[in-house]
Automatic annotation (TrEMBL):
It holds the Pfam family Mesothelin. It is found in: Membrane. Keywords: Cell adhesion, Glycoprotein, Membrane, Signal. One of its GO terms (biological process) is cell-matrix adhesion. PANTHER family: MESOTHELIN, STEREOCILIN RELATED. The lineage of its organism: Eukaryota, Metazoa, Chordata, Craniata, Vertebrata. This is Mesothelin. The keyword Signal applies. GO terms for cellular component: cell surface; membrane. Belongs to the mesothelin family. It comes from the Eukaryota.
Length: 397
């Protein structure tokens, strides 16, 4: 599969030689450039844009802003619904009026990738204000029907709307990428009240957690402690792997399930002995307190089976224990082969650790820079033999 940048390099040649755009793959179509569009007839650009919608091609804001100009060069198409929903973010409702109602316009905008417009930008604020006016929502209470129409626009509603609308907004809010502090507080307040279709946390099931997956990062201990532990365990075992939650977010649930056994200085309990089967179970974190994990790791060697657990949803305290194990095993610095496998442990790496690293090949450096960190913003330190360190911040979307 091509990246957008790679596809852009040969996009002109493909467009010139391919009469039927529907034969082009999603990977190729994402290479659309304004320069190529300017060389095409407007009708061909419109045809191209329609194919992009059918193939669910994701374009960037710069690509969409010039695509919409080409599509509308000879007036607004009457079949505007046949074009990518993301394109509508760069129109105004008045532009759409000739081809449909404002309600239909905002229903399509609600399905668009709203994050193409910067959060709290004037464009996004104006979209929300016009949507509320179109739906004749004078106050701060939004019903389920209007919430469904607003779609992703719900993500920009303030805390007062979330509280006033009770649970009517939760389904749409669960699709949001992030929240502001007042939104998070309002979501917790509504969920804690129990006056939603999900009921009180005490009555939740694994399917409830599935429906609320997008809101899980917002929930705090006051809510988690009310959810039955067997429900949390069942959800982790059967559904967590398919969720879009990061390992760090899953770790917050794991912390709620950690055994509450008292600290003790004895060795590893027999029933908690770490075997190959245990190492291959990604729910391993829920069975050990940090103290038990430390005791049970003493006789475990750092093999490939051990290294794979670094990607499990351990709590921060448990991660610190794992780092202790690695530090004891490699007192003179981690080997090259281990560095790309550190996962969430990178957040615990210190400059003292880094000073011991010796990156001996370009391939290893490339591997470090390409670490997939589950959409978490994590500092990754890369050191050369001369101990010149660079902090690389990556936010993977």
């Amino acid at each position: 599969m091509w990246t957008r940048e790679q596809a852009a390099m040969f996009f002109r040649d493909v467009i010139k030689t391919e009469p039927d755009f529907s034969r082009l793959s999603q990977s190729v179509l994402q290479g659309y450039t304004c320069a190529v569009a300017n060389e095409m007839e407007p009708e061909r650009v419109q045809e191209l844009a329609k194919v992009m919608k059918r193939k669910n091609v994701k374009l960037g804001a710069d690509q969409l802003s010039c695509l919409v100009k080409m599509v509308m060069l000879r007036g607004i198409p009457k079949d505007l619904d046949s074009y990518p929903n993301d394109l509508l973010l760069f129109l105004r409702p008045s532009d759409y009026a000739a081809t449909g109602s404002c309600k239909q316009y905002f229903a399509n905008v609600g399905k668009a990738s709203l994050d193409l417009l910067q959060r709290e930008s004037s464009e996004r604020r104006q979209l929300l204000l016009e949507a509320l006016a179109c739906l004749k929502i004078p106050g701060t209470q939004v019903n389920k029907e209007n919430a469904k129409i607003l779609g992703h626009l719900v993500c920009d509603l303030g805390g007062e709307y979330i509280r006033s609308s009770a649970g009517a907004l939760l389904k749409e809010l669960s699709q949001c990428e992030s929240f502001l502090p007042d939104q998070e507080e309002a979501i917790r307040s509504v969920i804690s009240s129990g006056n939603t279709t999900f009921g009180p946390p005490q009555a939740w099931s694994a399917s409830t957690l599935n429906e609320l997956t997008g809101l899980i990062p917002v929930l705090d201990h006051s809510i988690w402690q009310k959810v039955p532990k067997n429900v949390l365990t069942f959800w982790l075992k059967n559904f967590a792997r398919d969720s879009r939650l990061s390992r760090a977010q899953l770790a917050t649930i794991v912390e709620e399930l950690l055994p509450s056994r008292q600290k003790r200085d004895v060795g590893c309990p027999g029933e908690l002995r770490i075997t190959e089967t245990v190492l291959n179970n990604d729910l391993m974190p829920i069975y050990y307190t940090p103290e038990e994990l430390r005791a049970c790791l003493k006789n475990v060697s750092v093999t490939n089976d051990f290294l794979q657990i670094l990607d499990y949803p351990f709590s921060n305290e448990q991660l610190a224990v794992l780092k202790e194990k690695l530090d004891e095993t490699y007192p003179d610095g981690y080997p090259d082969s281990l560095l790309p496998k550190l996962g969430r442990l990178t957040s615990l790496i210190t400059t003292k650790d880094i000073s011991k690293w010796k990156i001996t090949s370009a391939d290893m450096l490339a591997a470090l820079l390409e670490l997939d960190l589950q959409n978490e913003q994590v500092g990754i330190w890369v050191c050369f033999p001369a101990q010149i360190c660079f902090l690389v911040w990556e936010l993977l979307v």
